[in-house]
């Protein structure tokens, strides 16, 4: 799945629906976040939560690419995008 644009508290429900649809398919989730121009902590927390849920369900989850915006917000929270891939 490729995500683009700005993801924030105002549209996090749309993001949740997109990710839940992927999760419900039972197929490995591969996120390309290279087109994300902006995000806030709500969007980032949702991605982390979906990863945890995917792992609990035995569904593969990884991030293929990440934008600078995503990496910066993660860093400001003391997180690393690599952690999403279990590194």
Please give a structural write-up:
- The chain has 87 residues and is α/β, with parallel strands linked by helices.
- A three-stranded parallel β-sheet has the order 1-2-3.
- The two termini are 21 Å apart.
- The mean pLDDT is 89.
- Helices cover 51% and strands 26% of the residues.
- It has one domain (2-84): Transcription Regulator spoIIAA (2-Layer Sandwich), CATH 3.30.750.24.
- The protein is built from four helices and three strands.
Task: Quickly list its features.
87 residues, Transcription Regulator spoIIAA, three-stranded parallel beta sheet, 4 helices, 3 strands, 51% helix
Characterize this entry briefly.
This protein is α/β, with parallel strands linked by helices and 87 residues long. The chain is built from four helices and three strands, in the order βαβαβαα.
